[in-house]
Amino acid sequence: MSVSKMARPRGGFYRYIVLGSLFVIYTFNFVDRLIFSVLQEPIKHDLGLSDLQMGILNGMAFAVFYTAVGLPIAWAADRFNRVSIISLSLAIWSVFTAASGLALNFWHMFFARLGVGFGEAGCTPPAHSLMSDYFDAGERTRAIAIYSLGIPVGGLIGLVAGGWVVENIGWHQAFFIVGLPGLVFAIIAKIIIKEPRRGAFEARAAVPVRLIAVFKALTTNRTFWMFSMGGALTSLGGYALNAWMVPHLLRSYGMSYAEVGLKFGLVGLVPTAVGTFIGGWLADHMGKKDLRWYPLIPALSTAIMAPLFFLALQMQNSWLLMAIWIVPGLCGGIWFAPLFGSIQNLVAPGMRAFASSINLFIVNIIGLGLGPMLTGALSTHFTLPDGSNAAAALKLALSIVVWVYVLSAVFYYLAARTIKKDWHGDGK
Length: 428
Fold this sequence. Notes:
Elements: H1 14-47, H2 51-68, H3 70-77, H4 82-100, H5 106-120, H6 124-132, H7 140-148, H8 150-168, H9 171-179, H10 181-192, H11 211-219, H12 222-253, H13 257-287, H14 293-313, H15 318-334, H16 336-345, H17 352-382, H18 390-401, H19 404-416, H20 419-422
Helix pairs in contact: 1-4, 1-7, 1-8, 1-9, 1-10, 1-12, 2-5, 2-17, 3-17, 4-5, 4-6, 4-9, 4-10, 6-17, 7-13, 7-16, 8-9, 8-13, 12-13, 12-17, 12-18, 12-19, 13-14, 13-15, 13-16, 14-15, 14-16, 14-19, 16-17, 17-18
């Protein structure tokens, strides 16, 4: 779509309708993605799979297309209609989520997960770019924080609904129930959201930037790479916990699927939702005084997460585990908005979607691709041949992986040292 045909970004209430629509889409994204976690145990037993195979399905199978396809989609999002890309992507991942319910073996599920990743790759980079044209530099982090609430809200819906459905109907039907409604909202979103003029809040008009220029700009942007590595390692821990805490609670505490979905959903994801909003507000508030707060806030939150998650995992009583979990769960949402909001302000308008996609490529190939798989591999390695210590093996694997948060805090701290030099929030 040419610039002349693009709508000027509407102020007032309409931009919040756009933001709300993008939030709903992102909620679908994580319902479809995280419901797999609560369905892991019945899928594993029905299809006769190991923890390593489940880790591949939960992480690498999804991440392969999600990361690889994300780059060309982001290139298109910097040039063509972003609303159409998002709507089509929602329809694709919804179809493949429903198709997951038809899987009869590992490879059926593997290719269904590839399809989900293919579709979901077209969501976040164009959505971040859209929000940058509806909200100015001082509001973007809070807008992205609201959008990012789709992660805990979608996860909560997936865990609670998935737990109830798998107990009362079956895991095959669970995929149908959460996948098909996305097709309807894909049409609604295309009607509601209008494509805005790019770079409307910037000092100069936004034009698509050649890929070689994007890579050249990012090569010298140290803050971008430090932020991306910090986010990748934070995601590694987060995706490992999201993928394996439901099986851990089922194996170690004898909970039912519905009980795990409800309790862990409330304790694990509600604090994350609160933390996501706090992170966006706090970053914009503190960042106006000193840009270094954008990476320092994630650095502080991830430094807290490692020891508290480890401590929670050592608890023999499930209520003690959940009580401790609230604090690192809250911190687990704080880093989203400062990271993704800063990425939009570290590059020029014409390269935002592609820069966002490169960031997501790094974050997801390491975090999503390796987190669940590494945990599954460690669990399989520690499990005895007769499987009698499966619960203890998984607990040990998780207890090792959570210390990755310490390393992520180091990368955020390094980003704070260079952010003033690399900041591009005024679009000049």
